[in-house]
Amino acid sequence: MQYRWNWTILFVEPYFGWLLAGVKWTLLVAGAAWIVALAVGCVVGVLSTLPSRICRAIASAYVDVFRNIPLLLQLFLWYFVLPELLPAGFGLWIKRDLPMPEYWFSVAGLGCFTAARIAEQVRAGIESIGVGQRMAAAAMGFTTAQTYRYILLPLAARNVLPPLTSEALNIIKNSSLALTVGVLELTGQSRQIEAATFQGIEALTAATVIYVMLTLCVIVGMRAVERRVAIPGTLGRG
Amino acid sequence: MRNLDWSAVVHAWPFLWQGLQTSFVLVALAMAGGMLLGTMIAIVRLSAWRPVAAVAAGYVNGLRSVPLIMVIFWFYLLVPLFIGRPVGAFTSALIAFTLFEAAYYSEIMRAGINGISGGQMAAALAIGMNRMQACRYVVLPQALRRMTPILLTQSIALVQDSSLVYVIGLHDFMTSIGIVANREARLIEFYLFAALVYFAICFSASRVVKRLQRRMAAA
């Protein structure tokens, strides 16, 4: 088969603009989902380490459900199924008046999916501190809330930074699944360029290179954060 | 909320079952191929020969920084160009998954090999094995054993990832669900059913892995 190369296609309007729009939507989906994932993930992670048995059961049920269903299917459940199961008025509002439902449902779906994984990291981070700190805090008269606020969470936050980096990378990569519900993020745009010009290799190359650059940016950024917050006197500072 | 009608799911089961079988075959082949290739990559990466090790590292890091969907699209586009004729979604998906998962399996195997104490290798060399034999009969069996739970966990991820062949229209379980869900206009029932099936498979598999881990920790 003959393939006719045409790299300039990437820098011609409208295709260049499509790529930029793709990057924008990838960042918007991944960024917003990251906020959801961090918030929900930290809450669920803390719940799973609390003394209360009910809290731990809720947390482990959350993690089991969100980790054992494929992300693609979870997005479909959010986008196609959830609006039907909600009370009629609310479902109608989502379908009629909510601007860009595909964006919001991708963010919610990707966020809740990643939250389950972050929760596991947070739990491991808290458990790795050891019971000594927890008992010492109790002996000092700290309440459970104070123990978490002043002792456990500040320590755990540093422990989980490296695994959080890989989750941040995952969320950027997984944001590509938003194309299945109609968000034209980077992968979706590269497919569109391919469909419009038949220059598939160029379009996919552009998207691939941009993904690699985005992940590199995240790695560099997270390393900087790790260095900045490292506890003096530990091996992390160096 | 509408009334749910599950009879459509029952009715469509033969079609869905075919999709599920396709998913299983794809996962099993990609798992076998991925582990084999991944182990070879891990050995190459740990070999003393620098340039080759660097190529292997580049392969692993490169594939790990690209979304799986992109990799699937890449192979869907490239394989026919290379071979010169259309090969179908299954072949290109299988190649994409094997090469993609190999990158992840190789990282697990590398950690496993690194975790074997150096004395094992030295002892194997001391009794007259060459490096190849030491690897084959002493190091790899132990690494594989130690990493079995993590390799299986990665394979559970592979089961879930296999649903992504939806984007190239390969008739696996996920795509079959999508097709009948739209044909019967019963999105809720079919997607909930799909969620239940995936959950049952992955949850029970992860329980098995957990049991295995506990047993290995006790031993």
UniProtKB/TrEMBL annotation, chain A:
Transmembrane segment boundaries: 25-50, 71-94, 203-222
UniProt KW keywords: Cell membrane, Membrane, Transmembrane, Transmembrane helix, Transport
The keyword Transmembrane appears for this protein: yes
UniProt-listed GO biological process terms: amino acid transport
Location(s) in or outside the cell: Cell inner membrane; Cell membrane
Top-rank taxon: Bacteria
Pfam annotation, one family: BPD_transp_1
One GO cellular component, as annotated: ATP-binding cassette (ABC) transporter complex
Gene Ontology terms for molecular function: transmembrane transporter activity
Bilayer topology term: Multi-pass membrane protein
PANTHER family, sorted: GLUTAMATE_ASPARTATE IMPORT PERMEASE PROTEIN GLTJ, MEMBRANE COMPONENT OF AMINO ACID ABC TRANSPORTER
Stated family: Belongs to the binding-protein-dependent transport system permease family. HisMQ subfamily.
Protein name, entry field: Glutamate ABC transporter permease
The organism of origin for this protein: Bradyrhizobium betae
Lineage, top ranks: Bacteria, Pseudomonadati, Pseudomonadota, Alphaproteobacteria, Hyphomicrobiales
TrEMBL record, chain B:
GO cellular-component term (any): ATP-binding cassette (ABC) transporter complex
Residue ranges constituting the ABC transmembrane type-1 domain according to the UniProt record: 20-209
Gene Ontology biological process terms from the UniProt entry: amino acid transport
Pfam families: BPD_transp_1 (PF00528)
Compartment(s): Cell inner membrane; Cell membrane
InterPro entries membership: AA_ABC_transptr_permease_3TM, ArtM/GltK/GlnP/TcyL/YhdX-like, MetI-like, MetI-like_sf
GO MF annotation list: transmembrane transporter activity
Record's bilayer topology term: Multi-pass membrane protein
Keywords assigned: Amino-acid transport, Cell membrane, Membrane, Transmembrane, Transmembrane helix, Transport
Residue ranges crossing the lipid bilayer per the database entry: 20-44, 65-83, 150-170, 190-209
Source species, domain of life: Bacteria
Family per record: Belongs to the binding-protein-dependent transport system permease family. HisMQ subfamily.
Subunit structure: The complex is composed of two ATP-binding proteins (GltL), two transmembrane proteins (GltJ and GltK) and a solute-binding protein (GltI).
Alphabetized NCBIfam families for the sequence: HEQRo_perm_3TM
Designated name of the protein: Glutamate/aspartate import permease protein GltK
Species the sequence originates in: Bradyrhizobium betae
Lineage, top ranks: Bacteria, Pseudomonadati, Pseudomonadota, Alphaproteobacteria, Hyphomicrobiales
